[in-house]
Amino acid sequence: ATLSMALDLNVGHVGPSMGTSAIRLVDVPDMNYFNAPASSYDGGKAKAIFDSGRNKSGGEVWVGGPGVSEGYYDPSLSGLKPGVPSNGMAKKTKEDFFKEDGYSWFKTGDIGSWSPQG
Fold it and tell me: What InterPro entries does its record include (predicted)?
């Protein structure tokens, strides 16, 4: 879903999204991550967090597009060895994969933020 640029020597990021995919950052209030400016939030927990200066810029990374699976293939359903347990995919549920606006979307569970380059 993202493209690493050959001459980009910066660390800690994954590069821009490919032309056939979309990336969203979604607020995670329980972790104080908010993707929009403070003026976008009316009252509630978000306002209290912004007022106290505890807000973090960013959110949960959601990836969408025509190349995103509508679900996780579980090899054990076919009697084969389960997937690699270290990748965390075995814990993903139907709620982590959904369709919206004609795209399949995947909630990665990763936290990310936008760089000046996007």
Answer: ANL_N_sf (IPR042099)
